[in-house]
Amino acid sequence: MLINLAEVYGTPLYVYDGDLIVKRYKELFDFIKWSNLRIYYAMKANYNIAILRLLKEHDAYLDTVSPAEVKLALKLEYSPDHLLFTANNLTEEEMEEVQATGVLFNIGSLSRLRKYAKKYPNSKVCLRFNPDVVAGAHEKIQTGGNLTKFGILMQDVPKVKAIVKEFGLKVIGLHEHTGSGIKNTDKVFQSMKNLLSIAKKEDFPDLKFVDFGGGFKVPYNPTEQRIDYLKFGKGITQIFSAFCEEYGKELYMCFEPGKYIVAESGYLIVQVNTLKNNRGRLIAGTNSGFPQLIRPMFYNAYHHVLNLSNPYGDPKRYDLCGNICETGDRFAEDREIPELREGDYLAIQNAGAYCYSMGGIYNLRSMPSEILIADGKPKLVRKRMSNEELVDYIIDVSE
Ligand code: LLP
């Protein structure tokens, strides 16, 4: 199927398995048994509109982080009350633009809280706290502790209360997000407990929900073991149900997974076009590059590579490179792959989350087309720009 799509649509090409996206989304409800569970898909992971539409069919909520994300979601007819807006370091104009849509703000600094409260007294808000737990697959994607720009410190609850009181705000939600790709589930439990320890009825009497962010890890390397999500889900429910009992009300429990829902669904199909032997170091060049999938270069992330055209070839070790004028432009280093031949199609796996969405047109190469397979049927869901269109776009935006 993947080779066939590569031949029909050309490469590089993003392909997503829509059935797997739906499966991953739905299974969260099996793992986390809580009748008032809401899953806010973190649309920054992949905002392809076909994926957003697919999840909407299943009544997903969305975690949004920019005015345009909010506008895109609303245009796709997500209702404003299905969105949470978690932005950081907003401008005043952005705050006004989003506030006008009626979407709930998740505010992560005392400074923004004060500005928001002054402008919109008596409104409802959600507050983002720093959970004081450091976890995540790479230091760039850890969002708790002293080194992060995110969230209000838990010790600042008295300051929060003063602002809330002065402007008559109604805090209906509390939020934390610890990091992305969290391996150690105990860290998630700890973050939950930390946030819940400040969610006291006397301090926050109007709570409707608590949102514990995203971060659910999926295996990227086939040798990695999958987290036991059933067990994890039980732990989560236990903590939350004990809290609700103490709080005296069954609140909504929210999560905001991005990677968990879409990472495994995606493949970037590339084609080998140049082989080189640097005194024994095998260098394989492909027709894509880091602007189209930056995670290996940016986070040292492992993405498994399949040789679709020669799956049973003798394994050899390669540096798998792209077509960009930078030495660091590698998808994999010294990686064992079944023998590569010029013309072979490769599938870079786990390319559904933070791959296309973090992409760009560096070196003036257009982002690839995207295909979504749903109910076994592939559909072109975004077309790459031709070189002429790309040039016109550059001229358009600069004139
Ligand atoms: N909620 C908030 C407030 C977030 O900041 C994020 C991710 C999520 C939810 C979703 O996290 P997830 O479930 O996808 O781990 N580009 C990086 C990941 C950055 C995540 C940023 N925030 C990567 O490719 O690994």
Report on the architecture of this protein.
β6, α7 and β7 form a beta-alpha-beta unit. The chain has 12 helices and 17 strands. 31% of the residues lie in helices and 24% in strands. The relative contact order is 0.16. By secondary structure, the protein is α/β, with parallel strands linked by helices. The structure holds ligand LLP. The site of ligand LLP has 22 residues, from α10 and α11.
The class by helix and strand makeup works out as alpha/beta
Distance between the termini: 43 Å
Count of individual helical segments: 12
Order of helices and strands: HEHEHEHEHEHEHEHEHEHEEHEEEEEEH
Given as residue ranges, the uncertain stretches (5+ residues, pLDDT < 50) are none
Q: What is the CA-atom radius of gyration, in angstroms? A: 23 Å
Number of E-type strands: 17
Q: Main β-sheet: number of strands, strand sense, barrel status?
A: 9 strands, mixed
Strand content: 15-25%
Fraction of residues in helix: 25-40%
Average pLDDT, to the nearest integer? 96
**What general form does the structure show?**
globular
Ligands in the model, by name, code or SMILES, are: ligand LLP
